[in-house]
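Task: complex structure prediction.
Instruction: return structure tokens for all chains below.
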Amino acid sequence: MPSFTDPDTTIDAFHRGRFFLVQQKRGAHRAGMDALVLAAAVPRDFSGLAVDFGAGAGAVGFAVAARCRKASVLLVERSTEMADCAERSIAHPGNSALASRISLLVADVALTGKARAASGLADRSADFVLMNPPFNDGRDRATPDTLRREAHVADENVFEDWLRSAAAVLKPRGRLALIARPASLGPILSALAGRFGGAEVMPIHATADRPAIRLVVRAVRGARGVPSLMPALILHEQADKRFTPRAEAINAGEASLFMD
Amino acid sequence: MPSFTDPDTTIDAFHRGRFFLVQQKRGAHRAGMDALVLAAAVPRDFSGLAVDFGAGAGAVGFAVAARCRKASVLLVERSTEMADCAERSIAHPGNSALASRISLLVADVALTGKARAASGLADRSADFVLMNPPFNDGRDRATPDTLRREAHVADENVFEDWLRSAAAVLKPRGRLALIARPASLGPILSALAGRFGGAEVMPIHATADRPAIRLVVRAVRGARGVPSLMPALILHEQADKRFTPRAEAINAGEASLFMD
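Output:
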């Protein structure tokens, strides 16, 4: 059993020290701004159960629990190694104020039907589903590291599989938020069709003058509205320079991504 | 034969008087900022044949001819009443510097196969296709005017039909640009798939703090690249106030929409 002084892990502070994550030092996908931006898609006054699909070390779920005092959070992660980090994060003394509202399920969110329910992901149980699905960015092809590959290599059908599960797990009118690369916009909109409506697509740009590096999509289970393209979030004033005020507030857990 | 003093039409100046359009005074879809924004998606140094699908009175094609001195333009319009306006625009003395590079085809761009070729739209003949397809905005349901309805009421399959024709008409590596509502993003990306690559999606916002009102999509026939989300164009500094400098330059025909 790894200890809190496990030399293979780090303990990192987020939201200005409001929560801490135990993370693999090397190889595994490490949490960063993507997770904090995604968590900020949940309105601060949200109450109910938020499920973090593919939670990794738990960054998205912890950030939701830290921002939304009335939220309960279920972290769902299939990798036992990542789930071990999440479990140790829950046990970390610095998270004692949040731990009672965070639980962990080791399961594969891509399971279907009875197998998904049997794994512990009950139909119509969640008020919000969040996901930062694995993707393959070209850099990873040069770094043959098993854990990182598992976190980043996209199944071509990842959005179809994960959004089918999200639709099943959500209550009617439950909400979804995901963060992904702009390259995935087509598969995301296809997978939303017929399941979710009222999609809000927010581009995330590193700097205002360059194409978006990510997008956040939020949508409502069973709604009928057409997609909207929201005003973008710009992360940095200039390349490799400090955060914009809005990005800094999101990084600190002090701002919502959408105007709600 | 209507004359230039036809009381049912107006003659409107665009690009600070660089071209003029004869337009129906009432009822028909009248050209505006959408057409000028779309035309600005063509690089100023473009040379070759640009085809304006569903050209109406010709605003997009005229704007391309005015901006791109090496471009030839083919206006394609199925409504004889709209095509009559386009023909009179070509004949207007204020357009004499452009008229030799603009031609008109009365045809339905949604035709397929041999019927499309027989109508005059030859396969692999175009270097650029532009389209501002009809759409149904809610207001039109209350205004039962035939011409306006014809211009605005969307066929559910309009993007599939028009992009299939665009793919056929374009030369390999020929380019496409369209302007549409954000609500159509899913059908657009679906219709692009397998035909076009390297899509650049640019949101167009009336003001910076509100969701996009339009999007421009540009893509390359037969390319493989994934979609990009480009920095947005903001039209107005504040609601109902003057254009931003960039929008004013595009309105005047003096700026490109993309950084090329």
